Amino acid sequence: MQTASDRHEYPAHWEADVVLRDGGTARIRPITAEDADRLVSFYEQVSDESKYYRFFAPYPRLSAKDVHRFTHHDFVDRVGLAATIGGEFIATVRYDRIGAAGQPAGAGTSDEAEVAFLVQDAHQGRGVASALLEHIAAVARERGIRRFTAEVLPANTKMIKVFTDAGYTQKRSFEDGVVRLEFDIEPTDRSLAVQRAREQRAEARSVRRLLVPGSVAVVGVGRAPGGVGRSILDHIRDGGFTGRLHAVNRAFEAGRTEIAGVPAHRSVREIDGPVDLAVVAVPAEHVPGVVTECGEHGVQGLVVISAGYAESGPEGRERQRALVRHARAYGMRIIGPNAFGIVNTSPGVRLNASLAPEMPRPGRIGMFAQSGAIGIALLSRLHRRGGGVTGTTGVSTFVSSGNRADVSGNDVLQYWYDDPDTDVALMYLESIGNPRKFTRLARRTAAAKPLVVVQGAGSAPQGHAVRATRLPHATVSALLRQAGVIRVDTITELVDTGLLLARQPLPSGPRVAILGNSESLGVLTYDRCLAEGLRPQPPRDLTTAASAEDFRAALAQALADETSDAVVVTAIPALGEGATEDAALAAALQSAAEAAPGKPVLVVHVELGGLAEALSAAASTGPQAAPGTATPATGPGGPTTGPGALTASTTAAAPQATPAQPSDAAPPRPAAGPRLIPAYPAAERAVRALAEAVRYGQWRREAADPGKVPEYDDIDERGAAELIRTLLARGQGLTLGPEETCELLGRYGVHVRRALPAPTPDTAAEAARSLGYPVALKATAPHLRHRADLGGVRLDLADEEQLRRAYAELTGLFGKPEELRPVVQAMAPRGVDTVVRAVIDPAAGAVLSFGLAGAASQLLDDMAHRLVPVTGREAISMVRSIRTAPLLFGWRGSAPVDTPALEELLLRVSRLVDDHPEVVAVTLEPAVVAPHGVSVLSASVRLAPPPARDDLGPRTLPAY
Fold first, then answer.
1. What is the pLDDT of residues 438-485, one digit of tens each?
2. Fewer CB near the last or first residue (10 Å), C or N of the chain?
3. Host H or E run for residue 405
4. 310, 403 contact by CB (below 8 A)
5. Please, which residues bridge with residue 95 across strands?
6. Can you tell me the distance from the alpha carbon of 744 to that of 309, in angstroms, rounded to the nearest whole number?
7. How many degrees, rounded to 5, is the angle at CA 510 between CA 506 and CA 516?
8. CA separation (Å) from 265 to 246, 253, 330, 738?
9. Radius of gyration of the chain from Cα atoms?
């Protein structure tokens, strides 16, 4: 580390792992005196041209003085960072603080620094310099530097592009044959947009390296059939993997060249040629040696099936941290450990590197599950015929991340965002490691394709390292919905909704036509539509005598009707009906649906063993069983389980999967065009899926124009900032007093009605005279505050006599004045009591919440939540989204209240916490909304140093 003369300790928090442009990883860390040999070795591998561009002259080697200068830093005025892979430097960056004349300067005299880069030629074009610029800029800002300068030769176009593409506001000049660049390093909207676009491309490519490998090595393949490693090898081979496949086991006897028809090796090092992906299935104690072999051979990524990590306790958690650090040192990313595996059904890949013995049916649904057991259930549901949602829609890619030590749902979302083979994303999340980032990525993804999520409500599994959040589960769910996530509660609903969205268009509204041959089933569907907030039309009963042609004509008419946005067809079997009739009905429905492709069609069927399959076959472009091929037996309850059931070696049998495709024939992937009609065995399942599609469609339309954060001329942002700085000088965190609260809120146009303390009847009378009658007398003791139901409030006191009588009643009921803390407040106009809150959550960010005061919010948790900053459109929807919103709009003859004034109050509070992250909590309770205006009767504000915002800093992978 540094010597005793250095001014600062080694800044370990500057260390970070980053994903590069090509999907590989590198580690960025400060350069220290111990790096002298690494620096010399690095410099020797840089071309003469790159050296010339760095020093503006031939510079074949570094002198001892150069090495000392470039490795000894004070971490304030002189800082150097290195990007490393395998512990060796691949690039460096440094800044030196300078004064106005370009001479070295100290921290108290200058906020400008000169910056310079050097990247090994072999690693140029990988985005290393761009990543280093983000990190050195963050370091500089931490040390009080606000501006960088750089001098670059005109021929060094790559480095000029690094600076110009970063998105910072800059000035450029040309003097003495050198291009001089100056730019502020404070993040801007453009620099953040550039950073996030680079993040998306890099993380998507890092996942693509895992899902689209050209060669795979399975490490831990047993010599005899059975066992995890041998099973996965068989699954990859039998699934028809199009790349090169290798089996690795150090216990193979010398001279063995193949096993089960696959080339066999005793070590990854023995493989001739590159290996893109290694699937590791060896005991945990042997994994470090495998990682080293893979890293030295240039393997790009790992899927670690092995267990015995964080899920097993503290010792395993430390083993997991070491695994991630070890793999990242070689630039590799990890799925797992304790993973179920990955699947890619693309005809050009056909990779089944998982514990699922059958390759899932190709389709356009991407699936991510943190749990292997849930992954099995998801894959099984998509294969099932009858007894559930049916159709030949299958999987594009599947990832089961296990302990999610490295690759997470965020990374897979980055990949799916622009994956042309994925139309719908389904995710089962037991925990969300970075809620702020997930919400941002989900919003962007949902604007392009549906994202359906089941989120575990309990604590995070033992194997998951997640950030702590103080937000209730219901609040997190509301924030996900705000981001466009289709949030469902069960795996059944996940698949129900996903299959509808995968093959049917989004409904343009909530109006639903219902038709079928069962009056009772139609009425049940109608009732469920009402319960889900849809607007159903009266069901049309075709009677049990309806033929396939009757169904076709009725469906065609409903689809042509401009007063409906979706159609639900209900069908029950007629006596003696058989497979022929099922096929005829399916073809009739398909014919009508294809003639009107703009509206979704769903079928609710009861005990129709053949209709679901017929509906699937009517539009299927997926693989069909060859003549004479056995298919799973089905009955009224769905498929029966057999020897080919989708299972893992350590799990119970799951529902049967379809037969595997022959390894020598690539199955065609279903095209995006044909519309499969999903069939549901129960009305509530069909309607719930449709309701989710309706809500998502509405979100998509609103997301196209999200509105703006309004500006208010009377907001004093600078004055509020000065007040906050003054108040925080008293301590690290404090709750403001009444006067300070009123002053700070007043800077943002939020005015709190004065409440004067009344420790005695005489002071109460004096306060009332100064405020003017009528007044309210309130007890503000913690156990009585906001509890009008306990009798601690007396309203409309018209004179001193009433005030003194009320004072005597309160003290007689609840105790001495010093226990009650009574206050006197002028009466506000009558209206609806509401509560407005804002909090800064360390994981999710700033959240604004709104509801009606009292039982509605406290007992029923009827609150609306939005991420800050809130737009005008979001404030309007927020007020209307709570279940008790009718009380604001004239419920049962009451006067409607001033909701525009309420919306403005929400927007002003949102602006306050967005402009000043030191405001970590605000509560306005009650805020009384009258027919004209809103009165804030009580408020509290808490200040604290703002939590670090990693979404505004440089790109990094989660630290281990």
1. 889 999 999 999 999 998 755 555 544 555 566 777 788 888 888 899
2. N
3. none
4. yes
5. 79, 115
6. 50
7. 90
8. 7, 9, 22, 75
9. 33
Nearest to 897 by CA among 839, 828, 849: 828
Q: What Cα–Cα distance (Å) separates residue 639 from each residue in 318, 613, 614, 644?
A: 44, 11, 15, 12
Task: Locate 495 and state its tokens.
Answer: 């698949």
Confidence check: pLDDT of 643 > 70: no
List beta partners, residue 429.
455
Residue 736 has pLDDT above 70, yes or no: yes
For residue 879, give the nearest of 896, 858, 854 by alpha carbon. 896
User: In Å, how far from its chain's centre is CA 329?
Assistant: 26
Which residues have CB under 8 Å from 537's CB, separation 6+?
511, 512, 513, 514, 563, 564
The Cα diameter of the chain in Å comes to 106
Q: Are 668 and 484 in contact (CB under 8 A)?
A: no
Give the per-residue SS3 of 6-74: CCCCCCHHHCEEEECCCCCEEEEEECCHHHHHHHHHHHHCCCHHHHHHHHCCCCCCCCHHHHHHHHCCC
Q: What is the pTM of this model?
A: 0.82
**CB of 150 closer than 8 Å to CB of 94:** no
For 709, other C-beta atoms within 10 Å of its C-beta total 16
Strand pairing class (78-85; 601-605): unpaired
Helix, strand, coil share (%) of the chain residues, nearest 5: 35, 20, 40
Please state, in angstroms and rounded to a whole number, the distance separating the CA atoms of residues 617 and 587. Answer: 9
Q: Which pLDDT value is given to residue 390?
A: 38
Alpha-helical segments (H) within 330-472 = 372-383, 409-417, 435-446
Residue 524, CA distances (Å) to 363, 518, 530, 537, 594 in order: 32, 10, 10, 13, 27
Annotate 277-303 with DSSP letters as a single string.
EEEE-S-GGGHHHHHHHHHHHT--EEE
Token representation of residue 563 = 């007063």
Burial of 328 (0-12, 13-18, 19+ CB in 10 A): buried
For residue 609, the model assigns a pLDDT of 55
| Closest by Cα among 708, 705, 702 to 869 | 708
Mode of pairing for the β-strands spanning 277-280 and 301-304: parallel
Residue 563 burial by Cβ neighbours in a 10 Å radius (0-12, 13-18, 19+): exposed
